[in-house]
Amino acid sequence: MDAGRLPGASRREQVVAHVDMDCFYAACERRRDPELVGEPLVVGMGYEGGETHGAVATASYEAREFGVESAMAISEALERLPRRADHDEDSDRELAETGYYRPVDMDHYERVGDEVKSVLHDAAETVREVSIDEAYLDVTDRVDWDDAQRWAADLKDRIRSEVGVVASVGVAPTMSAAKVASDRDKPDGLVVVRPGEVREFFADLPVEEVHGVGPVTARQLREMSVETAGDLAAADPEALARRFGERGREIRRYARGEDERAVTPKGDPKSLSRESAFTEPVEEPAEKRRKVETLAAAVADRAHRKDARYRTIGIKVVEPPFEVNTRARSLPGPVADADLVESTALDLLEEFADAPVRKVGVRVSNLDFTAGEQASLGGFDGAGDAAAGTPADDDGDPTRDPEADDGQAELTAFVEDGADRADGAAADDDPDGQASLGRFD
């Protein structure tokens, strides 16, 4: 079978584009302050000017040359890239080794994102908005494959000229291939993978570049001598299923260019979550608490901007080597209370106060988007706790964590609505470097 053709497809190959904005938060800051263009720029979540707390949401490519990475603590980023305002501007040497820091301004970023989405909806009949800076477009009825390169170049030009930010675009006959294509030539990339070329496109790529393969799965695949996407495409599907369950078959299909999913618009999210990995396992309780506080603030802020209330607050804790624990607490009814999100998340974290931790996450779920009276919190203490030592779903029932071996990194770029992601991937650190606090439900 032609690896680029969908199994059983009778019509011509669908044309799917994946649009991913480059360092979006930094690009938005540069749009309103052109003096930042070309300068090392760090955008911090939970950061305030002149302070050292918070975490890196986005590091520009210039900042990354100094070793600044998404999800890094601002205090560590400042050690690698001092704040320019803290140095004598008469010293050229010091200035060359400093950068600018800006706090996250989601209202501004969402306004810019809305402008980008307006262009995308004009360019395609069907758009699935994955996050503030990422979307899939189905342009099958508008674009022939002979015109795909020109169409994608025109779309990039429109976004640049009409909005003032830069996008990378991947075009392919499947969602999974389009996603990988958009990452291949960042920043300002444009990669078109034509029907029949998908498997060849994947063949020599490292296996972790296959959509849905995170660093943990990649490590386990390498233990099976699966180093590249081509190796994965040729692997025994039964062996993969024994090791990874149905997801093993799924990632093999993606590596072979077999992906039957259609681009569909997204409804209301089922949950909102953010998570962030430590560079090394951390035992210090205060450091874990600081990370959870940052994540809780991000989740509560996102819920507020979506006018969402929630009935469940939960955390995710990953212990070495890759033991995933989730804990949740149910509320008597839907609420919107940032302080409660933080305090509940910190209470749940206490169970892991002395444990080494690789990654933490915060989630609100059982969302309610209808206007109404907020539930009373009387009698809340201790109600609805998940069973100790047992992963819990939104209702506190024991369940298997579907991302038990990968999870999303997203702090991976503040990927929104992780529970309703279109791509089906366990997201890992975004190759664009913007932090996403990802899904973990």
Layout of helices and strands:
Layout: E1 16-21, H1 24-32, E2 41-45, E3 55-59, H2 61-64, H3 74-80, H4 92-96, E4 100-103, H5 106-123, E5 126-131, E6 134-138, H6 148-163, E7 167-172, H7 175-183, E8 190-192, H8 198-203, H9 215-223, H10 229-234, H11 237-244, H12 246-255, E9 271-282, H13 285-305, E10 309-319, E11 323-335, H14 338-349, E12 357-368
Parallel strand pairs: 2-4, 7-8
Antiparallel strand pairs: 1-6, 1-7, 2-3, 5-6, 9-12, 10-11, 10-12
Helix pairs in contact: 5-6, 11-12, 13-14
Question: What does it look like?
Answer:
The protein is of the alpha+beta class and 441 residues long. The chain folds into three domains: 16-22 and 109-255, Alpha-Beta Plaits (2-Layer Sandwich), CATH 3.30.70; 40-98, 3-Layer(aba) Sandwich (MutS, DNA mismatch repair protein, domain I); 271-420, Dna Ligase, domain 1 (2-Layer Sandwich). Helices cover 32% and strands 20% of the residues. The chain contains 14 helices and twelve strands. It has helices spanning 24-32, 61-64, 74-80, 92-96, 106-123, 148-163, 175-183, 198-203, 215-223, 229-234, 237-244, 246-255, 285-305, 338-349; strands at residues 16-21, 41-45, 55-59, 100-103, 126-131, 134-138, 167-172, 190-192, 271-282, 309-319, 323-335, 357-368. The strands form three sheets. The protein has a five-stranded mixed beta sheet. A hairpin with a 2-residue loop joins strand 5 (126-131) and strand 6 (134-138). Helix 5 (106-123) packs antiparallel against helix 6 (148-163). The radius of gyration is 22 Å and the shape is globular. The model is unreliable at 1-11, 378-433 and 435-441 (pLDDT under 50).
